[in-house]
């Protein structure tokens, strides 16, 4: 399978690394909107300017689009799905139906196969939710995120006046996780599920009390949470907060039996040293599936719900049945 | 969807209970090899003698076959797949390839759709293994079972002279689970992964020392494990060991990055009050998928690897994208 990467940030670099672990996958090119002469890939893969991509139509089986969900992917994925089989990690949950329709129209009209919203949430966590809900319909699911870095929340802090750098960790409340795991089916408010830890480098002479107050009162991002703000030096930021760990759990609890006499707990959890590395490893596996589905004539847009697990694997059906079933 | 149950033990009763939680599913009939007049269903579903089943060919969308893997399913599933869409929970891992080929031949030749080896292992644990291996190819997976009742091991103890009743619990070794979760990638022997706890009711005047020695030295079942044997009264057996809890974890650890600098842990775990109740809840969801796949003209035999998660759900693709993705 011949892959290409469109967008070369943390996620694109992660795809490049993941390809080295998948012998059936060849990385053809990286496309960037920057000046290609300023971009050097980790493994020497050639870099082209984004506008050149249409000349690669017969050289690429699947294009992995590594852009941001706010402004990049809503434009890029529908456009590129006209010309390529594509995979993206669009993660603005509320806008998925609109994004799906636009990508589906472009892919279906041009005989291409597209997958949106692959990764871990949306992605593997969505898969955990659908399996859990389908097997235990009389139940409830809970998603906890963290402990891990939320890049969106970190960015929100950085926009406050007097902030030089910031890192925000989302942390599940242990008592809430324990209550869910026990099968108690608790009703949990936003505040009861997660806390937010902020590490902030302030400018010299900045008013730290004001910065802290602005963070804690920021609507949507922090106001509904118990938030702690810790001011640190730039040296400490670089030494202790350079990584992008993340993870979390999807827990489905439910009851079965004529009188609901049996309780069951299904838990899917991730502990990731690097959020973009794991996401990009998932993207490569899902790109394999999209390539197989395209070969079977399945055109249009799909989500992770539409992909049979066997299509993610390089192994044959016989090998899978003999060794993994 | 119209379902029927073939075989009415713990698993068949579990399917009957699960149907009550799935409004899109109707249970038509239970078939038994016993005298139907001696079998009373939990919800009043009519019971027929197994031999009558061929007269139900146009009344049943999917038949769930609830037999044992040792002798029932290897005969029943290929036979019934000639006449019905079928689902079974065949769990003798080593014989899956042969069972698959026989069921596939019968189903494909007659335009039916079959699923073998659904449940949780094989089943949901297999799905956890394939997702984990596909996303983290540079890694290793570990499956731990328990704490839970192994019916095969309990039966093996019951066959020993002087044993009136027995219950065997498979228990993961906590230190082994912790070492795996830490990402240390340990090499673990059979003995290091699980212990076996046996609760035995002995006949009056039976030689308990001999029974204990026979259990602990039984090849395949106990000889490779640290096994404890506790003799209890029949009253205690009934009071404390009547349930069939089970569960366990599939853990995939792997590393990514050009220099393998990032470690990741994926864990899928189950904590089940009743093994047959959970298995049968899974069977009903997978039967829904087989019904959908049959409607799309997908004939032959499949495994859980071939089933897209969306097919397990009663929700539409639009609902799934809007609410579960």
What percent of residues of chain A adopt helix (DSSP H or I)? 25-40%
Largest sheet of chain A: 7 strands, parallel
What integer is the average pLDDT of chain A?
97
Assembly context of the chains: homodimer
Count of helical stretches of chain A: 11
How would you characterize this protein structure?
The structure is a homodimer of 325-residue chains. Chain A has helices at 10-19, 72-80, 96-109, 124-135, 151-158, 174-181, 190-193, 208-216, 234-240, 275-295, 317-323, and strands at 2-6, 26-32, 47-49, 62-65, 86-88, 113-115, 139-145, 148-149, 163-172, 194-202, 226-231, 246-256, 262-272, 300-302. With 325 residues, chain A is of the alpha/beta class. In chain A, the strands form three sheets. Chain A has a seven-stranded parallel beta sheet, sandwiched between helices. A four-stranded mixed beta sheet of chain A has the order 8-9-10-11. The first copy, chain A, has a three-stranded antiparallel beta sheet with strand order 7-12-13, sandwiched between helices. In chain A, a hairpin with a 5-residue loop joins strand 12 and strand 13. The interface between A and B is large, with 69 and 69 residues. Strand 13 (262-272) of chain A pairs antiparallel with strand 13 of chain B.
């Amino acid at each position: 399978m011949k892959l290409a990467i469109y967008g070369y940030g943390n996620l694109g670099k992660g795809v490049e690394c993941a390809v080295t672990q998948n012998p059936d996958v060849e990385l053809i090119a990286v496309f960037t909107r920057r000046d290609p002469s300023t971009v050097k890939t980790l493994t020497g893969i050639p870099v082209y300017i984004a506008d050149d991509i249409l000349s690669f139509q017969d050289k690429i089986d699947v294009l992995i689009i590594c852009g941001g969900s706010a402004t990049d992917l809503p434009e890029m994925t529908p456009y590129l799905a006209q010309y390529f089989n594509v995979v993206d990690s669009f993660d603005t949950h509320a806008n998925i139906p609109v994004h799906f329709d636009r990508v589906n129209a472009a892919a279906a009209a041009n005989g291409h196969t597209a997958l949106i919203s692959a990764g871990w949430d949306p992605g593997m966590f969505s898969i955990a939710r659908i399996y859990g809900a389908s097997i235990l319909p009389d139940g409830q699911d809970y998603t906890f995120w963290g402990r891990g870095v939320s890049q969106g929340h970190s960015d929100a802090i950085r926009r406050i006046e007097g902030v030089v750098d910031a890192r925000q960790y989302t942390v599940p409340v242990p008592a809430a996780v324990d209550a869910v795991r026990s099968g108690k089916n608790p009703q949990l408010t936003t505040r009861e599920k997660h806390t937010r830890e902020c590490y902030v480098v302030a400018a010299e002479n900045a008013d730290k009390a004001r910065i802290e107050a602005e963070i804690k009162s920021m609507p949507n991002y922090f106001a509904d949470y118990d938030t702690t703000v810790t001011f640190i030096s730039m040296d400490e930021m670089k030494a202790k907060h350079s990584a992008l760990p993340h993870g979390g759990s999807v827990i489905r609890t439910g009851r079965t039996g004529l009188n609901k006499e049996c309780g069951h707990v299904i838990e899917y959890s991730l502990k990731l040293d690097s959020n973009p590395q794991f996401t990009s490893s998932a993207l490569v596996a899902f790109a394999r599936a999209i390539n197989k589905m395209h070969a079977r004539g399945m055109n249009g847009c799909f989500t992770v719900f539409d992909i049979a697990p066997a299509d993610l694997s390089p192994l044959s059906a016989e090998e899978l049945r003999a060794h993994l079933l």
